[in-house]
C-alpha cells in the first residue's frame, strides 16, 4: 500500500515518517510540505543514510493519483481544507487534526474558526482504534483522536460503559509534554518558560472537552459535563491523564482492575497495571502503548484512573498508523511493536 504525508516536517509528520519507514506493508510514496522541494534530511538530519526522499509541494490531485492513503499531519483549519480536496477521490484519508471530530456548530464554538462542511465531517469515523474498530475498517475518512482525549477516553471507557459511576462526577487532570503543542515556537513552550515549571492552560476552555464528552455520551447517554484541566510539563514527549470519578457502589481496586483487564485483554496496546502500581510517562515513551493504573478509595467512594501515553505515538502518529492498519485489514499492531525507550 502506497502512503503519503502532508505536514511532514511537523512533529506528528516526522513521527509518521519514523513509523512508516519501517512498516512492512506501507510504502512511503511521497511526502509533502509547505517547504516545497527539499531533501527531508535538510529539515531532519537524523534521517541521513536512512531516507533519501525529497519533500514535495502539496498537490492533492497528484497525491490521490499516486497513493492509497494520505495522512494529514497539519494544523486544525488547514486539514479541513485539504480533506475537501480528497473527498470522492479513491484514497483513504487519516486526519490528525481536530477538524473532523466535532459537528460544525460545536467545532466553531471550541476551535474558534469555521469548520469543514457538515457533509464532509459527517463522513468521518472517530478513530479511537480500540473502541471503533468495525467502523474504522469500513471507512475512507478517519478523524484521528486528540492526544488528551485518547488517554482520557481509554481510561474512562470501561467504568462509563458499565454504568458504575456517577455520570456527573468526572474530573480529568491532564498533563502534556511540550511536543504536544507542535514544533511552532511559542512563549509558553520556550525552554526558559517551560523548564523547571508546570503551567496550567486553557482552564475550562480546552477544545478537547466536547470531544471527550461526545464519545462518553455514545457509551453512556446519562453522562454530564466533565471538568478537564490541562497542564504543560517540562518534558518533550509524554502525557498523563488522572481521572477522578465517584463510584455508584463500593468496588475494590482488585475488582475494577479485573474489569479493565477483561475489557482490554484483546487489545495489545492497552496495558493494565497490577494493584498498587501506577504508570509513568517514561514507561511508554516512543511506543504505541497506553498504560493504565487504578485505585478505588473506600474512604471517599472515588476511583482514580491514571493513563499514560506518548502524545506523538498513541496520541497521534501511532494511532493514525494503527487506524491505517485496520482500514487495510492488516493486523492492527503491524509496524507498531516499538519497545518503549527507557530511561
Ligand atoms: N503534537 C501532538 O502531540 C499532537 C498533535 N495533534 C494534531 O496533529 C496535527 C499536527 O500536529 P503537530 O505535528 O504537533 O504540529 P506541528 O506544528 O509540529 O506541524 C504542523 C505542520 O503542518 C504544516 N503546515 C502548517 N501550516 C500549514 C499550511 N497553512 N498549509 C499546509 N501545511 C501547513 C507544517 O508542515 P510543513 O512545514 O512540512 O509544511 C507544520 O510543520 C495538528 O492538527 C495537531 O493538533 C494531534 C494529537 C497530538
Ligand atoms: C501542550 C499543548 O499545547 N497541547 C495542545 C494539543 C493540541 C492538539 O493535539 O490539538 P487537536 O488534537 O485538537 O488537534 C493543546 O492543548 O492545545
TrEMBL record:
<dbReference type="GO" id="GO:0003942">
    <property type="term" value="F:N-acetyl-gamma-glutamyl-phosphate reductase activity"/>
</dbReference>
<dbReference type="InterPro" id="IPR036291">
    <property type="entry name" value="NAD(P)-bd_dom_sf"/>
</dbReference>
<keyword id="KW-0521">NADP</keyword>
<keyword id="KW-0963">Cytoplasm</keyword>
<dbReference type="Pfam" id="PF01118">
    <property type="entry name" value="Semialdhyde_dh"/>
</dbReference>
<dbReference type="InterPro" id="IPR058924">
    <property type="entry name" value="AGPR_dimerisation_dom"/>
</dbReference>
<comment type="function">
    <text>Catalyzes the NADPH-dependent reduction of N-acetyl-5-glutamyl phosphate to yield N-acetyl-L-glutamate 5-semialdehyde.</text>
</comment>
<comment type="similarity">
    <text>Belongs to the NAGSA dehydrogenase family. Type 1 subfamily.</text>
</comment>
<dbReference type="InterPro" id="IPR000706">
    <property type="entry name" value="AGPR_type-1"/>
</dbReference>
<dbReference type="Pfam" id="PF22698">
    <property type="entry name" value="Semialdhyde_dhC_1"/>
</dbReference>
<keyword id="KW-0028">Amino-acid biosynthesis</keyword>
<keyword id="KW-0055">Arginine biosynthesis</keyword>
<feature type="active site">
    <location>
        <position position="147"/>
    </location>
</feature>
<dbReference type="InterPro" id="IPR050085">
    <property type="entry name" value="AGPR"/>
</dbReference>
<keyword id="KW-0560">Oxidoreductase</keyword>
<dbReference type="InterPro" id="IPR000534">
    <property type="entry name" value="Semialdehyde_DH_NAD-bd"/>
</dbReference>
<feature type="domain" description="Semialdehyde dehydrogenase NAD-binding">
    <location>
        <begin position="2"/>
        <end position="139"/>
    </location>
</feature>
<dbReference type="InterPro" id="IPR023013">
    <property type="entry name" value="AGPR_AS"/>
</dbReference>
<comment type="pathway">
    <text>Amino-acid biosynthesis; L-arginine biosynthesis; N(2)-acetyl-L-ornithine from L-glutamate: step 3/4.</text>
</comment>
<protein>
    <recommendedName>
        <fullName>N-acetyl-gamma-glutamyl-phosphate reductase</fullName>
        <ecNumber>1.2.1.38</ecNumber>
    </recommendedName>
</protein>
Amino acid at each position: 500500500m502506497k502512503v503519503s504525508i502532508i505536514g511532514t516536517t511537523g512533529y506528528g509528520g516526522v513521527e509518521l515518517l519514523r513509523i512508516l519507514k519501517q512498516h512492512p506493508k506501507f510504502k512511503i510514496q511521497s511526502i509533502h510540505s509547505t517547504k516545497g522541494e527539499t531533501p527531508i534530511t535538510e529539515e531532519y538530519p537524523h534521517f541521513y543514510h536512512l531516507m533519501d526522499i525529497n519533500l514535495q509541494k502539496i498537490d492533492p490531485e497528484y497525491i490521490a493519483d499516486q497513493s492509497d492513503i494520505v495522512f494529514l499531519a497539519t494544523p486544525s483549519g488547514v486539514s479541513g481544507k485539504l480533506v475537501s480536496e480528497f473527498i470522492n477521490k479513491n484514497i483513504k484519508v487519516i486526519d490528525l487534526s481536530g477538524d473532523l471530530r466535532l459537528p460544525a456548530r460545536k467545532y466553531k464554538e471550541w476551535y474558534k474558526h469555521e469548520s469543514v462542511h457538515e457533509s464532509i465531517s459527517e463522513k468521518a469515523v472517530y478513530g479511537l482504534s480500540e473502541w471503533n474498530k468495525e467502523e474504522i475498517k469500513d471507512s475512507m475518512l478517519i478523524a484521528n483522536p486528540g492526544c488528551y482525549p485518547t488517554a482520557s477516553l481509554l481510561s474512562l471507557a470501561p467504568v462509563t460503559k458499565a454504568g458504575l459511576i456517577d455520570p456527573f462526577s468526572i474530573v480529568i487532570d491532564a498533563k502534556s509534554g511540550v511536543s504536544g503543542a507542535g514544533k511552532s515556537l511559542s512563549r509558553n513552550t520556550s525552554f526558559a518558560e517551560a523548564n523547571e515549571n508546570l503551567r496550567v492552560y486553557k482552564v475550562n476552555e480546552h477544545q478537547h472537552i466536547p470531544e471527550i464528552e461526545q464519545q462518553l455520551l455514545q457509551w453512556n447517554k446519562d453522562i454530564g459535563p466533565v471538568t478537564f484541566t490541562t497542564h504543560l510539563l517540562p518534558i518533550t514527549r509524554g502525557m498523563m491523564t488522572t481521572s477522578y470519578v465517584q463510584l455508584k457502589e463500593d468496588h475494590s481496586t482488585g475488582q475494577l482492575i479485573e474489569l479493565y483487564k477483561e475489557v482490554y485483554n484483546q487489545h495489545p496496546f492497552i496495558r493494565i497495571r497490577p494493584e498498587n502500581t501506577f504508570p509513568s510517562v517514561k514507561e511508554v515513551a516512543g511506543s504505541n502503548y497506553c498504560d493504565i493504573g487504578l485505585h478505588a478509595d473506600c474512604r471517599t467512594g472515588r476511583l482514580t484512573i491514571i493513563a499514560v501515553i506518548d502524545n506523538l505515538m498513541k496520541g497521534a502518529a501511532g494511532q493514525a498508523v494503527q487506524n491505517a492498519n485496520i482500514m487495510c485489514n492488516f493486523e492492527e499492531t503491524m509496524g507498531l511493536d516499538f519497545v518503549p525507550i527507557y530511561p
